[in-house]
């Protein structure tokens, strides 16, 4: 695989994840699953920077990957750093986007989830990822005989459930739409030829 193409796709995927996060989820306090969802909860409650929270929350999982499987570590750390950086880079443009584009919370949840799912799907297609709970699920699967998708779904449900309790019930319902549309987009991007 051409290294330039892989890095270009990872950069595009990071931009899609950042766009979905900043322009569609954050304005309505909608959550995503995984580490990004945890980072969004931290941001909504404390105002902490989302990209930094993603890196801090991912650190224990990446330490585990470094100790157990370095190949997974190297392919995931690039996706994590680019996604976090892009989220912080385009965050200030949120005001301008919202000034010109007016969407409701349901539309934003669906579009944001689809953009983020497409970004993750592209990374997975080119053998990279943002790490986080996807990486954690690979380790859990070694000890608990569940399908990888089921493990990821359960961790996402736990994160969204906690966010719904901490933020609002409306957040919970919109976040379910985000995860569903994100799952569809990821699935479409990772279909076998």
Question: Could you give a quick summary of the protein structure above?
Answer:
With 193 residues, the chain is mostly helical.
Mind explaining what this structure looks like?
The chain is built from nine helices and no strands. With 193 residues, the chain is mainly alpha-helical. It has one domain. It starts with a helix and ends with a helix.
Give the overall form. Answer: globular
Number of helical stretches of at least 4 residues: 9
- Succession of helices and strands: HHHHHHHHH
Mean pLDDT: 86
Number of strands: 0
Largest beta sheet, briefly?
Answer: none
Q: Provide the gyration radius in Å.
A: 16 Å
InterPro entries: UPF0750_membrane (IPR051461), YitT (IPR003740)
Organism: Paenibacillus riograndensis
Protein name: YitT family protein
Keywords: Cell membrane, Membrane, Transmembrane, Transmembrane helix
List the helices and strands and how they pair.
Blueprint: H1 3-25, H2 34-46, H3 50-68, H4 70-90, H5 94-100, H6 105-125, H7 132-143, H8 148-166, H9 169-189
Helix pairs in contact: 1-4, 1-6, 2-3, 2-8, 3-4, 3-7, 6-9, 7-8, 8-9
